[in-house]
Write a structure and sequence with these properties.
The complex is a heterodimer of chains A (260) and B (423).
Chain A lengths: L2 E5 L3 H10 L5 E3 L3 H10 L2 E7 L8 H11 L5 E5 L3 H10 L3 E4 H4 L2 H13 L2 H9 L5 H13 L6 H7 L4 H11 L4 H17 L6 H7 L5 H11 L10 H13 L5 H6 L1
Parallel strand pairs in A: 1-2, 1-3, 3-4, 4-5
Helix pairs in contact in A: 1-6, 3-4, 7-8, 11-13, 11-14, 12-13
Chain B lengths: L34 H23 L6 H14 L8 H15 L2 H17 L3 H17 L3 H17 L3 H17 L3 H17 L3 H18 L2 H17 L3 H14 L3 H17 L3 H12 L4 H17 L3 H14 L7 H17 L3 H17 L3 H18 L14 H10 L5
Classes of the chains: A alpha/beta (260), B mainly alpha (423).
Chain lengths: 260, 423
C-alpha cells in the first residue's frame, strides 16, 4: 500500500490518523526537517502535517516550502484552521485539509487521503487519450492509474469492472490499449519517472513505493517499456518521451475515435 | 509567525489546481484580516466540501452518522453570524436540505447560498457554489438543475466581464433546459444571452434573440415564456430610449404574465418608462402597486426610485421626505454592495435635480467608496458622471433640469389602462 509520512505531535491526532489508515502504511516525523528527510529517502506517497507542529513557526510557510521542494508529493494540512489559514494554505500549495473537528472521523480522513493519493497521472493521461480511446477504455486507464499507488494488480482491475481477466484482455485489444498487465507496467513506470523528477528521490525508494521488491526490478521494468536506464530520464523531457512511447502503444480504435 | 507574510504575494491557484472548495475562500484575497469575511468564507468552504464529499462518495453511500456529524458541526458554527444575517438563514436552509439528501434540492439550496454570497459582493464564493451545484447536477444527470446552475454561472460571469465564458454557460443552459422541457428555464437562459449581447453593444443581436424567444413562446402558447421575452424586450427598448416600444412590450407581457413576481417587475419597468415621458402621476401609481407586493429589501430600491420620480417632477418636498425614509433604512443593505451603491446613486440623482448639493455629494461619495471596494466599474462610471454634474453646479451653474420626452399615443393609452389594474 501507499506510504504516508505524518508530522502530528499530538497523540490524539496520531490515533485519529491511524484509525483511518492501516498502521503499516504510516511513518512518523518529529519535525519538518525530519519530514523532508523521510520524503527524500522513503517511498512516501503523501504527507500529513499539523500546521502547529512547531511552535512560533508559520506552518503555512512550511507547507509552501515543502510543496516547492516536492511538487509531486501531495500534502494534507491538519488542524484547527480559520478562514484565513485555509485561504493561505491553498496559495501555499496544500493538496487538501483535515480540520480538527473532522479529524476523529475515520471516514472523512480516509476520504481526504484517497483523493490526494489519486492525484497525479490520471488527468494527464485523460487529456492525451481522449478522442483516441472509447470512454469505457478511458475508465479502465483512469482506474488503473488512480490505483497504481495502492499496487493494483490485473485481477483486481478486472474485478472492479465486473469482468474476468480474459474478458478485460479482449476488451483492451478492442479499445486499442496494451494488455492489462502491460498497461499496469507502463503506468508504474510513468508514475516512477514522475516521482523521480523530485530532487533527492532515489530509484530504490520509488521502486518500493510502486511495489517492486528492489530498485533493480524497477530498472528492468523501465528497460522492458522504454529501454535504457532511469537516470537519463530524470528530467521532464525524459518523462515526456516515456509518455509519448506509452501513447504510441495505445493506437485506439475507430469506434473510440467516432465516440469522441 | 513571520514578520511579514510571504504567502500573500504568491499568485492564486486556479480552481483545478487548488484543493476542493478553495475558491470559496478566494474573496479573502487582499482582505485576509477581515474577520467577518474569514468566518463567512470558512462556513461556505465547509458547506461546499460536504457536497463535494457527497458527489465523490455518492449521496446514498456516505455513512449517515459521519455525514450528520459534519452537518451538525457546521450548524454549530452558524452561531458566529448574527441572528438576522441573511447568509445564516440561507446556510441553515441548505444544511436542512442536505440532511434530507435529495440531490435536486441540494443543487437549488446551494445556488441560493451562492446567490447570497454574490449579493454580498463575494464573487469567488458565489462561483464555487454555482460550479459545485453544477457538478452535483451533472453527477446526478439532472438536466434541469444543471441548466439552473449554468444560468447562475452565466449571469455571474457576465457581471464580472467574463463574457465569453458567460456565453458558453448560457448556451449550454438553454440547450439543457430544452432537453428537460423546462421552457421557463430556457427563456431565462435566452434572456441572459440577450443581456450579454446588449452589454456587448449589440442591441440588434439581443433584439433578434428575444424576438425569436417571443415567437416561440407564442407558438407554445406559454404565457410565462412570452412574458419573460417581452419583459426583456421592454428593458432593451427603454435602454435605447424607445419609451413607446418599451411600454408596448411591457404592457403586452403584463397582461399575460401569470406570476406575481414577473408582474411586479413589469410594473416597475412601466413606472420607469412613465417617468421618461413625464407621466409622473402614472409612475407614482405604478410604484405604489409594486411596493404593495415587494419584499422589504427590494422595496427600498423602489422607494428610492419613487423619490427620484418626485425630484424629476420638480416636487422637492416629496423628494426630501422620501429620501429621508430611504436613508433611515439604507444601513440594512450595507452588506449588499451593488444595491447599496445603486441606492446612493439614485438618491444622488434626485439631490442634484433638486439642488441639494450637500446630500448629492454625500451620496456620490458613499457610492464611489462602495464601488471601489467591490470593483464595480459600471457604478463608478455613473458616479463619475454625477460628480461632473455636481462640479458644474458648484462652479455656479444652475441645477440640471429633468427633460421628459413627449408621451406618444401608446404611452397615453397604456397609462390610462394601467391605472385600472393592480399587480
Amino acid at each position: 500500500m501507499a506510504i504516508i509520512a505524518a508530522l502530528l505531535p499530538s497523540n490524539a491526532d496520531r490515533d485519529a490518523l491511524q484509525a483511518a489508515v492501516p498502521p503499516n502504511d504510516l511513518i512518523w516525523a518529529d519535525s519538518w526537517r525530519e519530514l523532508h528527510r523521510l520524503v527524500r529517502r522513503q517511498p512516501v506517497a503523501a504527507v500529513v502535517t499539523d500546521l502547529r507542529a512547531e511552535t512560533r513557526k508559520d506552518g503555512v510557510l512550511r507547507v509552501f516550502r515543502f510543496s516547492q521542494r516536492f511538487p509531486l508529493t501531495p500534502l494534507v494540512a491538519w488542524g484547527e484552521l480559520d478562514g484565513r489559514e485555509l485561504f493561505r494554505l491553498g496559495k501555499a500549495g496544500a493538496s487538501d485539509v483535515v480540520i480538527s473537528r473532522d479529524a476523529d472521523d475515520p471516514h472523512v480522513v480516509a476520504g481526504v487521503l484517497e483523493v490526494v493519493l489519486k492525484r497525479g497521472l490520471s488527468p494527464l493521461l485523460d487529456d492525451r487519450l481522449r478522442g483516441k480511446i472509447a470512454d469505457e477504455g478511458l475508465a479502465v486507464v483512469r482506474y488503473a492509474s488512480d490505483h497504481v499507488p495502492t499496487h493494483v494488480q490485473v485481477p483486481e482491475l478486472a474485478d472492479s469492472f465486473g469482468m474476468s481477466v480474459s474478458t478485460l484482455e479482449r476488451r483492451c485489444e478492442r479499445w486499442g490499449l496494451p494488455t492489462p498487465g502491460r498497461l499496469l507496467l507502463w503506468l508504474r513506470v510513468l508514475y516512477g519517472l514522475r516521482w523521480l523528477l523530485e530532487p533527492g528521490r532515489s530509484v530504490e525508494s520509488v521502486a518500493y513505493q510502486l511495489g517492486y521488491s528492489s530498485g533493480a526490478a524497477f530498472r528492468r521494468a523501465i528497460k522492458a517499456t522504454i529501454g535504457g536506464r532511469p537516470s537519463p530520464l530524470r528530467n521532464s523531457r525524459g518523462f515526456d518521451r516515456a509518455l509519448d512511447k506509452f501513447l504510441a502503444e495505445c493506437p485506439g480504435d475507430a469506434a473510440g475515435q467516432v465516440v469522441a | 509567525m513571520a514578520r511579514y507574510d510571504r504567502i500573500a504575494p504568491l499568485n492564486s491557484p486556479t480552481r483545478t489546481e487548488a484543493f476542493q472548495g478553495w475558491l470559496a475562500l478566494r474573496d479573502l484575497e487582499g482582505r485576509e484580516r477581515d474577520a467577518d469575511l474569514g468566518r463567512r468564507a470558512r462556513l461556505r468552504f465547509l458547506a461546499v466540501r460536504m457536497v463535494r464529499r457527497a458527489i465523490r462518495e455518492g449521496f446514498e453511500r456516505v455513512p449517515t452518522a459521519s455525514f450528520e456529524r459534519q452537518i451538525e458541526g457546521v450548524r454549530e458554527e452558524l452561531g458566529q453570524l448574527a441572528t438576522r444575517d441573511i447568509e445564516r438563514a440561507r446556510l441553515a436552509d441548505f444544511l436542512h436540505v442536505l440532511q434530507a439528501r435529495s440531490p435536486a434540492s441540494v443543487c437549488k439550496a446551494l445556488l441560493e447560498v451562492g446567490t447570497v454570497a454574490r449579493e454580498l459582493g463575494h464573487i469567488y464564493a458565489a462561483e464555487e457554489c454555482f460550479l459545485t451545484s453544477q457538478d452535483l447536477a451533472t453527477s446526478q444527470r439532472h438536466a434541469s438543475c444543471e441548466a439552473d446552475a449554468l444560468r447562475a454561472i452565466g449571469a455571474l460571469y457576465e457581471s464580472v466581464g467574463r463574457g465569453d465564458e458567460a456565453e458558453v454557460a448560457l448556451k449550454k443552459a438553454a440547450q439543457l433546459a430544452l432537453q428537460a422541457d423546462e421552457r421557463v428555464g430556457w427563456a431565462r437562459a435566452v434572456q441572459g444571452l440577450a443581456a450579454l449581447a446588449s452589454n456587448r453593444d449589440q442591441p440588434q443581436e439581443a433584439r433578434k434573440v428575444l424576438q425569436s424567444a417571443l415567437d416561440r413562446g407564442l407558438e407554445w402558447q406559454d404565457a410565462r415564456v412570452t412574458a419573460i421575452a417581452a419583459q426583456q424586450l421592454a428593458e432593451l427598448s427603454l435602454a435605447a430610449d424607445d419609451v413607446e416600444g418599451s411600454l408596448h412590450f411591457a404592457w403586452t407581457a403584463f397582461r399575460s404574465a401569470p406570476v406575481d413576481e414577473v408582474r411586479a417587475a413589469l410594473m416597475l419597468l412601466m413606472a420607469r418608462a412613465f417617468r421618461r415621458v413625464g407621466l409622473f402621476a402614472n409612475a407614482e401609481a405604478a410604484y405604489d402597486a409594486v411596493l404593495s407586493t415587494t419584499s422589504t429589501v427590494s422595496a427600498l430600491m423602489v422607494q428610492a426610485e419613487q423619490a427620484l420620480a418626485a425630484a424629476e417632477a420638480g416636487d422637492t418636498k416629496s423628494f426630501l421626505t422620501r429620501r429621508a425614509r430611504v436613508v433611515e433604512r439604507i444601513s440594512e443593505v450595507a452588506r449588499q454592495p451593488q444595491l447599496y451603491a445603486s441606492l446612493h446613486l439614485t438618491l444622488a440623482r434626485g439631490a442634484i435635480l433638486t439642488g441639494a448639493v450637500d446630500f448629492a455629494r454625500d451620496h456620490i461619495r458613499d457610492s464611489i467608496a462602495t464601488a471601489r471596494k467591490h470593483v464595480d466599474a459600471a457604478t463608478l462610471s455613473q458616479a463619475d458622471e454625477l460628480l461632473s454634474a455636481l462640479e458644474e453646479m458648484a462652479a455656479g451653474g444652475s441645477p440640471k433640469q429633468f427633460k421628459a420626452q413627449e408621451p406618444g399615443p401608446i404611452a397615453k393609452r397604456i397609462a390610462g389602462e394601467v391605472g385600472a389594474v393592480t399587480v
